[in-house]
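Work through this protein:
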Amino acid sequence: MLLKTHRSGAEVLVAVCDCELVGCSFEEENLFLEVSPGFFGEEKACFKDVEKALHRATMANFVGEKAVACAISLCYVEAENVLRIGGIPTAQMVRM
């Protein structure tokens, strides 16, 4: 997986995607998903790295089978809230 943390004031957004998806775009009906290296970064991360980053996150984006499965197993996302765009699973989390 790839992991990038974005900070703006008190907000911490964690972006996680499967490595093989970076640089790809997906479409389905009126939905478009771009997995850009600028947003998802180039830092490879394991499950523990993602878990640690999510402890501080106020928001998170997950794209790909591995990234979304990680979010589900850590209880940040529920399986029924996963959206598929062009067959690729994606999910978001916001801590309130």
Q: What stands out?
A: Helices lie at 37-40, 47-56, 65-73. The chain is about 25% helix and 40% strand. The mean pLDDT is 97.
